[in-house]
Amino acid sequence: MSNTFRLLQSASQEKAPAASNSRVPLGSDFELAHGLETALWVYDIDRFRIVNANAAALELWEADSEDDLHARDLRKDMSSTVCEKLRQYQQDFAEQGAVFRELWTLYPNRIPVSINVFMQGFRLPDGRMGMLCEALGTEVQTPENLRSAEALMHTDVMISLVTPKGRILYRNPAARKFWPADATHLQDLFVDDWCRHRLLPSLKKGEDVRHVERVQTSSDVAWYDMSLKSCHDAATGEPAVLVTAIDVTALKLARDHATFLSNRDHLTGFFNRSSFHAEVERILKRDRENEMALFYLNIDRFKYINDAFGHEGGDLVLRTTANRIAQHLRHEDFLARIGGDEFVILFADVRIREEARHRLNELRKAISQPDQVFNDDIGLVYLRRLQLEADIEKALETDQITAAFQPCVDLETGRVVSVETLARWHHPERGFVPPGEFIPVCEETGMIEALGHRMFRLGADQVKRNP
Question: Which ranges in 52-136 belong to alpha helices (H)?
């Protein structure tokens, strides 16, 4: 505490007892400061204004009078970081009776002036906590020193100094803002026990530590890139630890999400083909003696599901199937979607084949349960499909499907060099049926083989008639 502060406090205590948490009462007592050569002023932290100043302070601030100085809104030359820092000091004044000494840069007429300032809590007449400031003298500082001090105050990097046991000695404004107010030790900040029990012991061995860890902030749990280095406390010379912390939550979440997307199927959320191959390789390297069971499955006539109910219906079936499979898997089992309607299931460490068969039967029962509620519209679509299949089968038997020949011409010579055989269906009631309607059905049902044989025979017959 400075001698000037002691003088004002002593005079105040002779007149009246100080209010609770008060350092020096405001009012006529401040008249004692007007005859002092040391610059003194009282700052209203909440309203960003100087409410009292002696003559030396008016000269320092280049103000004509107290009213002139009081009218100035100091917020105009004050960054949000400085405002936040003074709010923190205000809390410390009220709760701890703290005092501070710092190098300040004032801007009386937009020209920077560097001074050492001693600060102490000061109760205003309405009971709010203000700040009594004493200028201890101007400082001649190099631009590098001034800029480094300014950067330390405004940076978003949290910088702290703690004892080897973790007790906090110093926190810059960023650290005070984001760390919990009740945190007194570095160990209070960590969410995981690993950090509490291993980081500080590593420092005692002289090892510098850098690790990304979950940290409890004043508002939430976040990820921080923590760097801890052994050093000494400049005030006492005792061993200390310098802690810097950078918020990397957004980067960590983005990286985790990217990793998830690269390993997972976007529709079902389960593993994808590349993850399946990597898992098989990992198991083969780790357990060459234990048996494992690998099952491949797909959904019969899945294309028909997409055609009948759209891709949304098809996606629903895929997700439902995957979830039903997952409900019957153990933690060590593996499920991946490797294609459109293709899944693979890996049962790790299967001791007997009967066990694998039993589990496979359970999966079949689960997957075979109905996915949609039947209604008249579904019935109508299904009946149309069945009728189309029956008509195609009859068309192949009764020669309704004929061949159309499309020549392939050599553009240089104009000669026909080959002929493409195309299937054409003339239904006795519907007339011409487009190939795009019946050929996919042939492919799904297996009738495509019979259709191919018929097209080959019709093409061969045409060649015989027109050699």
Answer: 55-61, 66-70, 80-96
For residues 12 and 42, the answer to whether their CB atoms sit within 8 Å is no
Q: How far apart are CA 175 and CA 244, in angstroms?
A: 9
Nearest 5°: the CA angle 166, 170, 175 is 90
pLDDT for the residue 45 = 94
CA distance 297 to 147: 67
Alpha helices by DSSP H, listed for 231-352, are 249-263, 273-286, 302-326
Q: CA geometry: angle at 29 spanning 26 and 30, to 5°?
A: 70
Q: Is 28 exposed, middle or buried (0-12, 13-18, 19+ CB in 10 A)?
A: exposed
| Number of CB atoms found within 10 A of residue 31's CB | 11
CA pair distance 53, 132, nearest whole angstrom: 10
C-beta of residue 155 within 8 angstroms of C-beta of residue 194: no
Q: Which residue matches tokens 């019946």?
A: 438
Element (H, E) at 338: none
Residues in Cβ contact with 397 at an 8 Å cutoff, skipping those fewer than 6 apart: none
Non-local (6+) Cβ contacts of 423 within 8 A are: 401, 402, 403, 404, 435, 439, 451, 454, 455
Closest CA to 422 of 410, 435, 433, 432: 435
Q: Which residues pair with 123 in a beta bridge?
A: 129
Please say whether the beta carbons of 132 and 5 come within 8 A. yes
Cα distance between the two ends of the chain:
117
- SS3 of 137, please? strand
Q: In 155-248, which ranges are continuous DSSP H helix?
A: 173-178, 193-204
Beta-sheet pairing, 129-138 with 221-232: unpaired
Cα distance between residue 123 and residue 26, in whole Å: 7
Using CA atoms, how far apart are residues 220 and 242, in angstroms rounded to an integer? 23
Q: What are phi and psi of 185, to 5 degrees?
A: -130, 155
Q: For residue 241, give the H/E element and its range.
A: strand 239-247
Residue-wise pLDDT tens digits, 110-147: 777 778 889 999 999 999 999 999 998 765 555 665 66
CA distance 257 to 266: 12
Cβ-based neighbours of 282, under 8 Å, separated by 6 or more? none
**pTM for the model:** 0.42
* pLDDT given for residue 402 in this prediction: 92
In whole numbers, what is the pLDDT of the chain averaged over residues? 80
Q: Where are the alpha helices (DSSP H) in 62-218?
A: 66-70, 80-96, 143-154, 173-178, 193-204
Strand order in the sheet with 334-337: 293-298, 342-347, 334-337
